[in-house]
Amino acid sequence: MSKINQIINNWPINAVLTSKWLQDRGISRQLADSYVKSGWLVRFGSGAYKRPNQQVNWYGGLYSLQNVCGLNVHVAGKTALELHGYAHYLRKDARQNVLLWKSPDTRLPAWFVNNEWKEKVHIRSVNLFDEAVIQLTNKEINGVTVGVSVAEQAVLEYLYDIPKYESFDEATYIMEGLVSLRPSVLQMLLEGCLSVKVKRLFLYIAEYYKHPWFKRLDRSKIDLGSGKREIIKGGKFDASYHIVVPEIRREDR
């Protein structure tokens, strides 16, 4: 049992390990099956295992996707903003929603997709940025470290979800509070952003609030495309950014 003992002792808390990961370390499927029978391992869906007496939460599963499977998936949008400390700008849901983004060509394993997580995990397949500009940072959640969109990227991801999943009014409230974004990071992300809608909407709201970082953006290097974009039906046309949106309202919360 020395091999399995060594693996268990170095096993990240509340994380999932895959059959392939175990095989790469000399533990065959047959040997893993024997460890399951003897109680050293517990099955966690197809081709995956966890340690006995440990509960795997969504972030433990995500840790394994990122670090064990090497997959292109991260905490994004609204959930990333919450982890960066902007939760007080966001409406509260009765059940915690977790938003993960992945590239369209990334296939997540069944043990993650089909698991009944305590939280409601939403997975989006999106190409919003050139891959070279994507900015992630590490965040620790209950002892597990996962890759999360930086705040500058998270707010652009949030805007991508308007109006289908998120509201325009809440987006303006969030952006009103984003006083300390880094203009150099924003510049890079906006130049590498593939959505004309997101770029126009971001600049429209940012210009309204006149945060110091907005003045340091070089808009001449940001491709805003051509033609009109109707983001919210029934809104008003803004001639500066050629978008149809509601008027920005200030709220007391």
For the biggest sheet, the summary is: 3 strands, antiparallel
Question: What order do the SSEs take from the amino end to the carboxyl end, as H and E?
Answer: HEHHEEHEHEHEEEHHHHEEE
Q: CA-to-CA gap between the ends?
A: 58 Å
Structural class determined from secondary elements: alpha+beta
Q: Give Rg in angstroms.
A: 21 Å
Overall pLDDT metric: 91
Helix content: 25-40%
Principal-axis shape equals elongated
pLDDT < 50 stretches = none
Query: How many DSSP-defined strands?
Result: 11
Biggest sheet strand order reads 1-3-2
Q: Report the portion of residues in β strands.
A: 15-25%
Number of helices: 10
Give an account of the 3D structure.
This protein is of the alpha+beta class and 253 residues long. Helix content is 36%, strand content 17%. It contains ten helices and eleven strands. The protein has helices at 2-9, 19-24, 29-37, 58-67, 77-86, 110-113, 151-160, 168-176, 183-192, 196-209; strands at residues 17-18, 42-43, 48-50, 73-75, 97-102, 120-125, 136-141, 144-149, 229-230, 236-238, 243-245. The chain has a three-stranded antiparallel sheet. Strands 4-5-6 form a three-stranded mixed sheet. The protein has a three-stranded mixed sheet with strand order 9-11-10, covered by helices on one side. A hairpin with a 4-residue loop joins strand 10 and strand 11. Helix 5 (77-86) runs antiparallel to helix 7 (151-160) and helix 7 packs across helix 10. 32% of the residues are buried.
